[in-house]
Amino acid sequence: MLEQNISTVNNDVKTLVKDAQALFTAATALTGEKADELRGRGMRALDSALAKAHEAQVSALAASKEAAKQADAYVKDNPWRSVAAAASIGLLVGVIIGRK
Fold it and tell me: 32-49: b or e for each residue (b if 16 or more CB lie within 10 Å)?
């Protein structure tokens, strides 16, 4: 779910930045009031992209903190299982490295 949200936000930000770039490109060819309007729309699009990127960052940070809390609670509740799992992974990595 989190990966889907991050992907959606990432696509939205890319689209908004491309739209802003197109507006700025069009604004360079124009002068006066129309150019000011296009520049304003471009700046609003960039601001929106930055806001969405910030929201995604905050959401990812909150999710990672929650995952860390859950992992910490699991390790505290099951210390020997955690030690056994870590030792198993270490042994597996050692065997794989030893074969090379």
Answer: eeeeeebbebbeebbebb
